Amino acid sequence: MKRLIMTIGAAAGVFAVSGQELTYPEARKDNVVDDYFGTKVADPYRWLEDDRSAETLEWVEAQRKVTDDYLSKLPYRAEISAGLKALANFEKPGIPFKKNGKYYYFHNTGLQNQSVLYRTDRLGEPGEVMLDPNALSSDGTVALKSVAFSKDGKYMAYGVSRSGSDWEEIYVMDVATRQLLDDHIEWVKFSGAQWKGDGFYYSTYDQPKSGSAYSGKNEYHKIYYHKIGTKQSEDRLIYVNEKEPLRFYAAATAEKENVFYLEESGVGSGNALYVRPLDDDKAAYKCVNDDHSVACLPVDIVDGKLYLLTNADAPKGRLVAAPLDNPSKANWKDVLPEAADVLSNVSIIDGKLVAVYDKDASNHAYVYTLEGKLLQEIALPAVGTVAVSGEKDEKEMFYSFTSFAYPTTIYKYDIDKNRSEVFSQPSVPFRSEDYVTEQIFFESKDGTKVPMTLTYKKGLKRDGKNPTLIYGYGGFNVTLYPTYSPYRMFLIENGFIYAQVNMRGGNEYGEEWHMAGTQMNKQNVFDDFISAAEYLVKNKYTNPDMLACQGGSNGGLLIGACVNQRPDLYRVAIPQVGVMDMLRYHKFTIGWNWAPDYGTSADSEAMFKYLYAYSPVHNIKNDGTRYPAILVTTADHDDRVVPAHSFKYAATLQAASTGDNPKIIRIDSKAGHGGGKPIAKVIEEYTDIYSFIYYNLGLKPMCVK
Question: pTM of the predicted model, to two decimals?
């Protein structure tokens, strides 16, 4: 490839904002062409994949200047920022959990960048700070990702990530003194600490080559054992599969430290699972499941029975039990057979099964005996989302509940009396009863009924004039549940309709629903989202000039594809950290892991053509078609969906003839894919996004006098 010097400053497109003319930086075009099964595909911005090169950094800084100049001139920014801070400034309680006779819980006083871990001897009494992640950095960009206590209660291992990266480091604390030990584990990914005696297992990759930590392809996931008081270089290698570099391997240990679980994933939509005695690293593994197309997750062990949550021969999930000494599929016996609703989670608490089922993308919770006899349903306060916490041999149980207009509340639950009482409830500056949440079912392009949930203020008039934000994901078995967000509530309080679409590709109705949105069925996802927007317009909730669309990661891909296919349907689009180059996504970090959902351009000519037909980067129109106002977002430490996707997408957008609406890119610093982002940065990001939405919809927030 012939290298040229990029020049900054030549106009690739011009538009006006607040009376100011703005010029996009021009990115040079290389003559890179790939041959896919005889089809020549140009990739002129390939050089932007090197996010550490001086040339790319120059382009990034030029884009930041354009974006910062544009956003700084938008009206109502101060009011929007203040409104977001006011709504975010409430106490955020966490679910208590018990370890070695003490209670632990996370708590945020309101605008703390990271929630703090506390411990107490008695419930309801103020706790002492166990670990404050805010003390680990001056700006809140070091996040606590995992906590694990040793069986004897002497040690707490905790994992942190820096600047939003998927890379983690594990540290160890003496629980009694809260003193940090010398133990320090680096280059951990998708793994916490799993204790055995005076040490723990963890999964890691070899240290990346210089300059490739955030974009290089991750290969050969390894499991090690670390003994307290030793250096990482002395850790013992427990497992590596030299024949399969593109798979994940995770260790887990049973509560009584008698069983070692080995999970293998990354090759299909499910996982393989093997077990062996924990005290013998050389013992043969017994196969629980080796079919990577189905999920098989250990729940717990009771009286020599291994309880497993699986969708094998049950697309909506079932709970089975198998003898621990012979746990192969032939010996599985149903405890909770497949039902009409999706079985999404099972816990064993106080010797009983607590099962969570999903009905039309919301949770319902039930209590069963260990043999599967229904005892009772847990009455939840509304349609929403529940998370359960408790121990197998303890009576105490807690659960959290949340919904779109219902901030996360913690309940204490008496299993024997089937009675819930509020344990911790936040105080927020609005009344949940002033808002309406309704679920509707619309027909997608092929006639499939798809659910969508709308939340808005009471008294809304369906006159076709309501500003609306439509949001979706649609992939990787992820169910979009009703959850509370203070940032989203800002829009709803200010007269927006929030529409959340439960498209195919997720797990809302089980594995069949998931598969209906994968690989050569991926267009179904885009059709579902487009049909949802059309429904909102046809039924006079809104109109295209009042409609903004948003999605992140796989949802960023969704927005990019839907804008290309129906640019007339939206006034504003916010694709966040999106997968935008569908021909090369598998070449970076752990992108290869997405192949079960997407397929790859190398799989076959048919798969290549399918991906090429919807890949956002490759399908941007260049014929004068008017596109919505687009704000692309990414971050410099995103090593999940590398920034190159958004870089190439933004460069292509800015160079194309797509009308006079702005197409800008917001590139955050010291941030990643989104996990662990400090509250201050979240407020900054949503101030930019909402200012962009309001301005380009031609609206003034109601909170502005």
Answer: 0.95
